[in-house]
Structures are given as structure tokens and as C-alpha cells.
Specification:
This protein has 171 residues and is an alpha+beta fold. Helix content is 34%, strand content 28%.
Length: 171
């Protein structure tokens, strides 16, 4: 029996509760940053936008709006619903969504892995430009197993991601 199976058997033998994203997280958007503002206030802190190239980084400025662990998501365009894990000091534009946890019973990296799979299913693709706004994110069901289970899942997936990155580098 794997460590994960043991933890599931120990902590959630009757299954896992699901909650809406809006019940366990705060969702918000950034503010408008023009290219000229970024050029005139160049610095060390990244500004993330709705783009996915360059890890979503639009530029770097001398101030920041957020400091800590968060998730951001691409709100519109061809890659709407792409989820990013952010850690440190940064800012986001108005076409980028931000997710922060409301309590301490949710591992943000666990949420990152879950939403990376599920969020694209909620993208609205009608009328041309795909979009995933806050009101579409809010009802996404999130499993909330006990923290030891979340942490073991994150450990496994982080190891897998690291191995995948090493393999891609060698190829």
C-alpha cells in the first residue's frame, strides 16, 4: 500500500468533501498596467498578464501588489483557463485573475494541480474570444481532503513535474 493510500484510508475513509472555489478562496483581478508605465517604472518585480508566453510575465516594475503564495489564471484568449502558481512579490494586470486561500485547510499547490486540470473545462468559448471570468471560476468544485493527504499529493506531483522537466531538458 502506498503512502497516499495509507493517508486516504486514515484521514478520509468515507470520501472527500467538495466545496465551491468561492467558498474556500478569494478571487480578484489585477489593475491596468500600460506598457509605458512598465517602461517608466522598470524594476525587479514581475507583472503578470493574461499571456502564457514567458510564464505570463509582461514586464518588471519597481513595486509590487502581492507578496506570498497565490494562483493566477489567464482570463481570456486562446489560453484562457491556464493556471499559474506564483510565489514571491509580483503584480498582475486587469486581464489576469488572482486566487488566494481563505483559510489554512487548503494547500495552494494542491489547488494549482486540481485547477490546472479542471479550469479549462469552464472556459466560455462562444462569441469568438474564449473567456474564463471570476463568475465562471467561483462554482468550480474543489475536493478538500485533510492537509496530510493534500501534501502527499503535492509531493508526488512535484516529483513528477521535476522528472518531466529533466526528461524534456535531455530530449
Amino acid at each position: 500500500m502506498s503512502r497516499l493510500e495509507e493517508l486516504i484510508q486514515q484521514y478520509c475513509p468515507d470520501g472527500v468533501e467538495f466545496k465551491k472555489l468561492c467558498e474556500i478562496c478569494n478571487l480578484s483581478r489585477g489593475k491596468v498596467y500600460s506598457k509605458s508605465y512598465i517602461e517608466e517604472n522598470a524594476g525587479e518585480y514581475p507583472v503578470y498578464s493574461s499571456q502564457t508566453a514567458n510564464n505570463g510575465e509582461l514586464g518588471r516594475i519597481s513595486t509590487y501588489d502581492y507578496d506570498g503564495e497565490y494562483l493566477t489564471w489567464t482570463t481570456d484568449g486562446a489560453y484562457a483557463g491556464t493556471i499559474f502558481y506564483r510565489k514571491g512579490k509580483f503584480s498582475i494586470t486587469n486581464v489576469c485573475g488572482l486566487i488566494s486561500t481563505k483559510g489554512d485547510n487548503l494547500n495552494i499547490k494542491f489547488l494549482f494541480y486540481w485547477l490546472s486540470i479542471k479550469a479549462p473545462d469552464y472556459v466560455y468559448r462562444g462569441m469568438g474570444n474564449p473567456k474564463l471570468m471570476s463568475n465562471q471560476m467561483e462554482p468550480i468544485p474543489i475536493p478538500v481532503p485533510p492537509l496530510p493527504v493534500q501534501e502527499e499529493i503535492v509531493r508526488i506531483l512535484d516529483n513528477f513535474a521535476e522528472l518531466q522537466a529533466e526528461l524534456q531538458a535531455e530530449l
